[in-house]
Amino acid sequence: MHYLEFEKPLAEIEGKAEELRALARSNSEMDVEKEAAALDRKADGLLKDLYKGLTPWQKCLVARHPDRPHCSDYINALFTEYTPLAGDRNFADDHAVMGGLARFNDAPVVVIGHEKGNDTKSRIERNFGMARPEGYRKAIRLLDLAHRFRLPVVTLVDTPGAYPGKGAEERGQSEAIARATLKCLEIGVPLVSVVIGEGGSGGAVAFATANRIAMLEHSIYSVISPEGCASILWKDANKMQEAAEALRLTAQDLQQLGVIDRVVKEPLGGAQRKPKDAIEAVGTAIGAMLKELGSKKPEALIRDRRQKFLDMGAKGLAA
Amino acid sequence: MNWISNYVRPKINSLFSRREVPENLWTKCPECGTMLFHRELADNLNVCSSCDHHMAITPRARFTALFDGGIFTEAKVPEPIADPLHFRDQKRYPERMRAAQRQTGEKEAMLVAEGEIGRTRIVAAGQDFSFMAGSMGLYVGNAIIAAAETAVKRKCPLVLFSAAGGARMQEGILSLMQMPRSTVAVQMLKEAGLPYIVVLTHPTTGGVTASYAMLGDVQIAEPNALICFAGPRVIEQTIREKLPEGFQRAEYLLDHGMIDRVTHRGHLREELISIVRLLTGQPPAVKGDLPPPQPADGAAKTDVPPAAAPETGAAKT
Ligand SMILES: [Zn+2]
Q1: Sign of torsion over alpha carbons A111, A114, A117, A122
Q2: CB–CB of A165 and B235 under 8 A?
Q3: I need a surface site. Which of A26, A93, A164, A253 has the fewest CB within 10 A?
Q4: Does the structure's ipTM exceed the value 0.85?
Q5: With respect to CATH, is domain A60-311 assigned 3.90.226.10?
């Protein structure tokens, strides 16, 4: 279990309980269960307290938690017959973006998402979920495929942002993102999106220009990382707590602003504590969102999606 | 913020301070150091007459030189809610807005106008880098949508001049949402079969490039304009290597197939007239039919150079 900075007190208690139980395993005369159970209760209470009032910055940390379920976990658990489709037919296959054909509740769909990887090797292979132009162009290809064969699209957003690299710029990072956003607006099939971790700037928009957008309770979606914002506006990257606060990047704020449609509740202590529960909750949300759109005609889906974004920004946050 | 003032190296400064040149009459070219007289510079559309360096130009000055006889009508842009997030960094957002408004005399970072260029009706949208780095927030999004809607209503092309440091951070997620919103505007033009021409000017970066500024039917850039998604400094920090000469500049993008043309500001008007007429199936513009071209050398001139008196002929609505 990887503990976040603010979870340190919790780590101590859970560590103690774990130690006791380990001791008891190697020494059969010892009875520690009562004591350990008391520690468990204490830990539970603390966890509740910690997660009741997460600050925006703490939410950023939870959203980036390395043990949080990632795109491939959701695809494996929620979809059947997943058939990955690769490549942008131009330059490469970007491993930061995964996608392909699959079934959701037996119905054929196209699923696309950012994948961050879960150990050093896969993180490097996935470029930490930072797509290059090829990733967006692969997505464009899949969106087009979905449109032509009338398949609903599910996108899972989890990226720190588009990759700031030399080759990525030379091959048209901005054009690729712009084109993917435009493609999202043009397809005549239901497009639903879930921010499962980090919704980092333009890289997220390229996938999340959807009919329905949901966010996990402790995920974030922002125009810039709090660190980036702090270094630009505060001239001090260490002011990321203040920046996270000011940016209003939490799922709760985004729902109030009318940018997203629903917040998906996470298990106590975040999706990383009980990944199965988090994945199931996301599955329920995807099902509900697809159902809302199921009977709409292609033109209506395009029109409604467009209107949704035109209307955005009509309301601000309460003072 | 004002990058024109950054050039003043102490040495050169002391050279000129003795003569006490009034600041507003002379501008030193940040590229070659030539002192340029304001009237000459304005006549030359803020391009250095000695080295061709393209300096910033406000949309108002640009439109005055672009439209026939300097006549254009400003399009109405729906007013968005102010300070939707109650954003505060070291200053409050409304304070920063007021300062930008005082400094520029403009309401926001984009100007939308309609009129004729070479007797060809167009809608033009110009982003103002001097206003909070041209950053894209709700107003800029509304302006682009208004520009597209006006073009659709008039059945005429949209020419957009981009210039921005990126998104308006003080509007948080709502500034990010201007990426899909402005893309909807592009979609409207596309559906109506109307040309959408983008002129990328220095600098055009961040979310602006990753939305409407890269979706033109024809993509033109001004010479040496920085055009990128991630800025060079961010990239250098990420990949820890020095970037090649001219990286992310207009000519570099042209070489890499990302844009159609790099065009000198002085030739832009003629080129836009030609492209717009070609795309809309109109006969070539009759040169004699056009108002006399602005003198390039500043020799023969009208009473007021266009850039110096931006309000000339501009009918405000
Ligand atoms: Zn010069």
Answers
A1: positive
A2: yes
A3: A26
A4: yes
A5: yes
